Amino acid sequence: MITQEQVDFYHENGYLLVKGVFSSEEVEEMRTATDAIIDRAAKSKFDRSDTWQGDYLPPEQLKKLVLKGFHDVHYHDAVFTRALCHPNMSAVLSRLIGPNVQVHHSKMLVKPPEKGAAFPMHQDYPYFPHANHSMIAASIHLDDSDMENGCLCVIPGTHKNGPMPHVGAHYLNHKEYPISSGTPCPASAGDVLFFNYLTIHGSDVNRSTRPRRNVLVQYRDPEDLPTEEVHVNWGQGLMVCGHNPIFKEHKGAH
User: Fold this and answer.
1) pLDDT digits over 126-138, tens only?
2) SUPFAM superfamilies this protein is in (predicted)?
3) pTM for the complete prediction?
């Protein structure tokens, strides 16, 4: 799926957009599954909006915004289990992380038309810190994405900064790191943006009449151990490439 030049680009810049990872048919299956999850959630007691709170937007604007950010979507529909283990994903991840690749978690991030919430600039590191920083996010695009509907923006090379102080551990000071400081990463449906969890990234509000549906999967080297027991779920550790060199009993094992 990728050349050595692209691998080098990732290691230098901390991100890489790979075109056409998923076919139009596979994208349509994931769109249908995403919409169905939102529908099922709306009928349950677990529905919510995951809009980030803070002073990065005026309060009157913030309260109007919506973000659907349900975690572990591969527990809700098998189409996402197939997606996160897709041969094209494995082909890229094995070049960026190494021969052994493990899932940390998945989630869907859906910005509805005209009111889809922003993500202020941040690193993912504070949420699930690891010792060797192998963690990579793979943002699977289910819709064409541009600045109008809130595409991802990154600051190239910032993965080399190491962990940075965040406001309440959630996002960076928006006056120092506004979304406009990022490099836009427009993408087409079926493309995947890979980026290190130390790479500063964020996205603006969806001001368009189009949805922006993404599925995000976090992957790691299984030998890269967490430094804090946070963001743990019972299905964590699914192997996508290679094997787990560390043998241990898992929860529920007998």
Assistant:
1) 999 999 999 999 9
2) Clavaminate synthase-like (SSF51197)
3) 0.90
